[in-house]
Give the backbone structure.
Amino acid sequence: MSNKIIRLLKEKKLTTYILKANNKMKVQLHVSHKPHISHKIGDVSTQESRALIDILEREDLFEKVVFGNTVACPYCESIDLVINIRCPKCRSLEVEREFVLEHAKCGMVFPAKNLKIFNCPRCGRDIKPDKELRIIGSIFRCPSCGTSFESPDIDLHCNTCDKDFSIREAEIKKIYTYQFREKAEEILDLLYVYSRIYSEIEKLGVKVYLPGTINGESGVKHEFPLVLRAGNDKCLIIDLGGLVSSIDLDGLIRDYIKILDTPQCRYLYVAKDENVNPEIQIPSKLKDYISLIIVKDIDEAIDKVKEYINNLIGEKKR
């Protein structure tokens, strides 16, 4: 997970958003009247939202899901269409529709051109259209030729390429939106925690990098989610993964090589009590480089990390 966190933190658009927002990200779907399909995240612009979605989709945190479908022009695939309802006999556009309605309280059945009926024509009672009227049918009429019919013909005109076509010729286009994969919540929570800690550490007047790069003694450059430099000779690597997921020996061993290759740095693990395996034993070679802080929640983590850093700064001043 650490590598994914680093990649996400290196995306300035995403980091900027995380730093100024809370950790609840929600994608909103917008379809305008002159159809233009777009997505927004929070209060950022559509363009910025698109960039964030691209990042999250690339990192496999998002998946596309079908939201609905619409008709599109078979010639240019535009969905900017005008729908024309025609009489199937004379092709006139002068088509009218009548509903056949039933008043639930008295059983009266009557025709109406719309659903804005507030008084029953039979019993005279006030009607709540959304609760007391039931649509039991509808019929279309053509004033031009006097024909009545159940379904009109539907033709479409494309405003983009200026072509006409029937509903039978129209292309069906799916509209997609995005939803988070199951694993995304844990990763976004961790990004949020890093952003909180980063903001608090900045106030202490030390250099902090999100993410940070350290040159190892082997010549290899190592990347870490959060690096603090209190001086020119030493640094502090802060690992917050234990706040949202478990820390075990396997996790420590994965960091073993990087920790030994960066002896100028102290490696600080921050974890919730329930995420620490009580049987874990830090390898003896790493004890001089690793510190472990156990906390109950994020707020306590911030306080303890700040206390640790203040002590570290104090040591350098003495």
In short: Residues 81-171 form one domain.
